[in-house]
Design brief:
GO terms for molecular function: isomerase activity. This is Sugar phosphate isomerase/epimerase. 44% of the residues lie in helices and 15% in strands. A hairpin with a 6-residue loop joins β9 and β10.
Length: 336
């Protein structure tokens, strides 16, 4: 029997996961009680194969589907994924953050650059930004711990909390970001790599204060030397590597970089892109050596997680949950 195909078959775990959303309208305590009583060890998700932890970045990988923290937990348990890197929005929404006004955070214009907002939209954005800041500086970490408990009782841990930090944010907001990351159980804060050395220096100082790694993510601008300045500023400044973007931007294998900096990689995004800024492809159809990288992690016993990032076009007869399951099956097969 092909073990990788088993990930796509109906299972007791998938049946259990299908009931999660129906019960998430209850109080946090009720949700927690449900998780502890219903998710038993024999049905718990497991995506750690031969020592290599496979996770998924959420909600991005499920951006075409409902994306509350409860929705995302349902998908992960259904697929069999037991670890995630989670972006801040569903976490903060679960904890009671103000809701962003509709229409402010859409995709950039076709030609690139920033979206142009109307005066009314700009005012709404300013008001939302102010309200979010006030909320962040007053919210109890107990709400984040409740989410951590909900996930853990369903068999899922959060290793990464993704929240961008800017120079304009106050020291108190920086403390909030690191405290929230620790409250949900993350061992790393992740964000896009800033272009300003002053900013990575400041972030690194707070990472040192909180003793929590920061993994900086890069796209096709990545080179073997891209993270050198940030890493020289603090031992807590690290790399959130994306091997697909690295391959597309450099037309080179990421394996030499991984071997050199494996002790500074906090986590690694998996996607399959082609050389020369080529497109995202279904796994196995691009130029990114996903199998070879995973086998290297297995051989060398690297401890950082490998994170599925679903970015290729989803077939019309499929959905994000099914495609992430295919990616997981691919990774499991590579590590068998």
């Amino acid at each position: 029997m092909n073990k990788s195909k088993d990930l796509l078959k109906p299972s007791r775990r998938r049946f259990i996961a299908s009931t999660v959303l129906a019960l998430t309208g209850m109080t946090t305590l009720s949700r927690s009680s449900f998780a502890s009583s219903f998710f038993k060890p024999d049905s718990a998700p497991n995506s750690k194969f031969n020592g290599v932890q496979i996770g998924v970045i959420v909600p991005y990988s499920f951006r075409s589907m409902p994306g509350t923290a409860q929705d995302l937990l349902k998908y992960c348990v259904s697929i069999g994924i037991n670890a995630v890197e989670m972006q801040n929005t569903p976490i903060e929404s679960f904890a009671g953050a103000p809701t962003a006004p509709a229409g402010l955070f859409g995709p950039p214009p076709p030609g690139g650059g920033k979206r142009q907002l109307t005066p009314e939209q700009q005012t709404a954005l300013d008001n939302y930004t102010k309200a979010l800041k006030e909320w962040r500086l007053s919210v109890s970490m107990d709400k984040f711990k409740a989410l951590r408990k909900l996930y853990q009782e369903a068999g899922v841990t959060m290793y990464g909390f993704k929240l961008p930090l800017t120079q304009a944010m106050s020291d108190a907001e920086y403390d909030y970001a690191f405290n929230a990351a620790k409250a949900v159980g993350a061992n790393q804060l992740t964000m896009e790599l800033p272009t300003e050395a002053e900013l990575t220096k400041r972030i690194g100082e707070f990472a040192t204060k909180h003793k929590l790694m920061v993994g900086y993510h890069a796209h096709t601008q990545a080179t073997p030397e891209l993270w050198d300045v940030a890493m020289s500023q603090s031992k807590y400044n690290g790399i959130n590597l994306d091997i697909g973007h690295y391959v597309a931007g450099t037309s080179q294998s990421p394996i030499p970089l991984i071997k050199k900096y494996h002790d500074k990689i906090t986590s690694m995004h998996l996607k399959d892109r082609k050389f020369n800024n080529g497109p995202n492809m279904p796994w196995g159809q691009g130029d990114t050596p996903i199998k070879e990288v995973l086998q290297l992690m297995k051989k060398e016993k690297y401890s950082f997680p490998a994170t599925i990032e679903l970015e290729y076009t989803i077939p019309q007869d499929s959905d994000a949950e099914k495609e992430v399951a295919k990616c997981l099956a691919y990774a499991k097969e590579a590590l068998s």
